[in-house]
UniProtKB/TrEMBL annotation:
The gene is TRIM10. This is Tripartite motif containing 10. GO terms for molecular function: ubiquitin protein ligase activity; zinc ion binding. It holds the Pfam family PRY. The lineage of its organism: Eukaryota, Metazoa, Chordata, Craniata, Vertebrata. It comes from Canis lupus familiaris (Dog). GO terms for cellular component: cytoplasm.
Length: 478
């Protein structure tokens, strides 16, 4: 082992370059074999009186100053034992630790590996003991089975990971597309709002100017009237202060002129201008409608990617009457003269759309008419859905659908579940997201979510429709 070798290098003697034997430490702290250091000290120098020096650092030390290093000696012993174990390797693993004999047997009861001596021991006499290879055989088979199961589960997890990563990428692309739509639509709305703001501000500016003009006319008219009445008041005041003879002179004409003077009562704001001011809020109503329309359009475009679908008459049950354009179906108790084929439903009164889908995101509108009762089923089905005999409407059979009946709506899961909705849908938007595995139903009028199925599609799927009850019908919105 590399770590044991590196430790062995650390406990070598600087003089003999071997592993330290009876290590001793001199005054400077360096360690040597006792025998090596003793021989070093016995070598005579040029000056017998000169002190001894450490072979490594040349620091002086006393002849009797070195002392045994017992801790280092223990470390050296442990390193040598580890080195021996690593050298012997696997040879010792096949040898019984207690008896030193080679291991040949395995005790099933104690799950212990035995040598010949262990095999004959009293505690194993009544146990099931086999040779190692014989005992390992069944365990190898069990391990092999476990490996196969684990590998299958690992592959399944890897498939799920791949599928979910693909779904994530599809969703990211959808989000990016929606982001571009939002940016585009809001830029268009921003331009429209700026234009409308300019129009409304210009109209307010005109109203402001007209009010000021009428104020000036009003002020001029009032000033003129005040001036005229001031003249009459002054004349009457002057008349009143005269003596009787002067007061009576021409008094009747003065009174007639004063009494017959009609006061003009001008209006500061004309009725027409006042009406324009009162009607101004009405100018904002088209703007409000435009913003409402914008929000509806934005929600619609973010969620609606129309798929041009039509009904496939080759799949239609004989009790369904299809329109000539194959976009409307009505239930009838009278059987149609429809040739039988492998694609046609013969028990379930259902019909599929043309084409089908193996990828992408698609949406279609279904307008339901249940005025006379009955029910309508909408959703998607797998290509291999059962066409003959009884059809069980649930995901296990390859059907993801909801049923609309008079007064309630049900999601057709493994067990049908009645849904609590604010209103009965009459127009349903169905959205299929193939890669993500979503089938979503929404009330197309109120935008209220109805239900969403989550699954993983592995084959082609088709829009699916079913009817039951006299007069029930549906049509596909263009």
């Amino acid at each position: 082992m590399a770590s044991v070798s590196s430790l062995a290098d650390e406990v070598s003697c600087p003089i003999c370059q071997g592993t330290l034997r009876e290590p001793v430490t001199v005054d400077c702290g360096h360690n040597y074999c006792r025998a090596c250091l003793t021989r070093y000290c016995e070598i005579p120098g040029p000056d017998p009186n000169e002190p001894l020096h450490c072979p490594l650092c040349k620091e002086p030390f006393r002849l009797g100053g070195f002392r045994p290093n017992w801790q280092l000696a223990s470390v050296v012993e442990n390193i040598e034992r580890l080195t021996l174990v690593s050298t012997l390797g696997s040879d010792q693993e096949d040898v019984c630790q207690e008896h030193g004999e080679k291991i040949y047997f395995f005790c099933e009861d104690d799950e212990a590996q035995l040598c010949v001596v262990c095999r004959e021991a009293q505690e194993h006499q009544a146990h099931t003991v086999r040779f190692l290879d014989e005992a390992a055989g069944p365990y190898r088979e069990q391990i092999q089975k476990c490996l196969e199961c684990l590998r299958r589960e690992r592959e399944e997890i890897q498939r799920i990971q791949s599928r979910e990563n693909q779904r994530i990428q599809v969703l990211l692309c959808q989000v990016a597309t929606k982001r571009q739509k939002v940016i585009f639509e809001f830029a268009h709305l921003s331009q429209f709002l700026e234009e409308q703001q300019s129009v409304l501000l210009a109209e307010l500016e005109k109203l402001d100017g007209d009010i000021l003009k009428q104020r000036d006319v009003f002020d001029a008219l009032v000033s003129e009237e005040i001036c005229r009445f001031s003249t009459l008041v002054a004349e009457l005041e002057e008349k009143l202060g005269r003596p009787a003879r002067e007061l009576l002179t021409g008094v009747r004409s003065t009174l007639i002129r004063s009494e017959t003077r009609k006061c003009r009562k001008p209006e500061a704001v004309s009725q027409e201008l006042g009406q324009r001011i009162r009607d101004f809020p009405q100018r904002v109503l088209p703007l409000r409608r435009e913003v409402t329309t914008f929000l509806e359009k934005l929600c619609f475009e973010l969620d609606y990617e129309p798929a041009p679908i039509s009904l496939d008459p080759q799949t239609s049950h004989p009790k369904l009457l299809l329109s000539e354009d194959h976009r409307r179906a009505q239930f009838s108790y009278k059987w149609q003269n429809s040739p039988d084929n492998s694609q046609r439903f013969d028990r379930a009164t259902c019909v599929l759309a043309h084409g089908g889908f193996t990828e992408g995101r698609h949406t279609w509108m279904v307008m339901v008419d249940l005025a006379h009762g009955g029910s309508c089923t909408v959703g998607v089905v797998r290509e291999d859905v059962k066409r003959k005999g009884e059809l069980k409407l649930r995901p296990e059979e390859g059907v993801w659908a909801v049923r609309l009946a008079w007064g309630f709506v049900s999601a057709l899961g493994s067990f049908p579940m009645r849904l609590a909705l604010q209103e009965q849908p009459r127009q349903v938007r169905v959205t299929l997201d193939y890669e993500v595995g979503w089938v979503t139903f929404v009330n197309a009028v109120s935008q209220e979510p109805i239900y969403t199925f989550t699954t993983s599609f592995t084959q082609k799927v088709f829009p699916f429709f079913g009817l039951w009850g006299r007069g029930s019908s549906f049509s596909l919105s263009p």
